[in-house]
Amino acid sequence: MRAQPLEVKRLIDGADEQRRSHFPMNDFAEEEYGTFMDTMFYYWQSMRMPHSLIPRVLDFRPREIFSEAEMERYHGVDVRPVEPPNFVMREHPGGKVADRYGNISDKPISQFPSRIHAEACSAEYNLCRTLGFPQYHEVDQIVCGYSRRYRRLLLPLADEKGKIVRLAYVVRLLEPVARVF
Fold first, then answer.
1. CA angle 133, 63, 104 (to 5 degrees)
2. What angle do CA 118, 110, 132 make, to 5 degrees?
3. What is the radius of gyration, based on Cα positions, of the chain?
4. Which among 70, 118, 125, 166 counts the fewest CB atoms within 10 Å?
5. Distance between CA atoms of 100 and 123, rounded to whole angstroms?
6. Which of the 8 DSSP states describes residue 34?
């Protein structure tokens, strides 16, 4: 059974276009059962208690548990900056877009090569930071000459004081990345 999105946004800027669907977390388990994304979500949940509702960054260490191949689908986002365009992508594995435009690791989101992708990510990451709850999206896009379709899970992580300072980011490709121009 296919989940119905809470919201769908369609964005176009020159040759870049994307459809971003925000899905309810209530549908996550059925849609992602048995995937690495599902496993990462349950790992995140296991870190919640007894400490707090949001796991601490210091306790969340998936690289110690999961394989290197699985961790290629894991990224982090530093959400300490006040302004969302200044959030910084961490641990991004690169890929075909990075081969063409440079890796986005350790750079602010505002420096992503696609303006509409940067703006959408800024808004979605900020929503996760503000609400303090996982967020589940499907993204169907042509960005920087590449077609990508994937699902993404954002998981908030807090510092010792309980402030959300990082997002764990897990993706599952629905189709292979393909160059379209």
1. 70
2. 65
3. 16
4. 70
5. 25
6. T
Q: Is 154 exposed, middle or buried (0-12, 13-18, 19+ CB in 10 A)?
A: buried
Query: What was the pLDDT predicted at 113?
Result: 87
Do 57 and 92 form a contact (C-beta atoms < 8 A)?
Answer: no
- Bridge-based pairing of strands 164-179 and 88-90 is unpaired
Q: How many helices (H) and strands (E) does the chain have?
A: 5, 7
Per-residue pLDDT tens for 72-122? 889 999 999 999 999 999 876 666 555 555 667 788 999 988 999 999 999
Measure the CA dihedral 20/25/31/34, to 10°: 120
Q: What's the pLDDT score for residue 105?
A: 76
* Distance from C-alpha of 89 to C-alpha of 7, rounded to nearest angstrom: 24
Give me the amino acid identity at 45. Q
pLDDT tens for each residue of 1-55: 477 999 999 999 999 999 999 999 999 989 999 999 999 999 999 998 766 789 9
| β-pair partners for 95 | none
Structure tokens at 113: 């090569």
Under a CB-based contact definition with an 8 Å cutoff, are residues 62 and 77 in contact?
no
> Judging by beta carbons within 10 Å of its beta carbon (0-12, 13-18, 19+), is residue 170 exposed, middle or buried?
buried
pTM of the model: 0.92
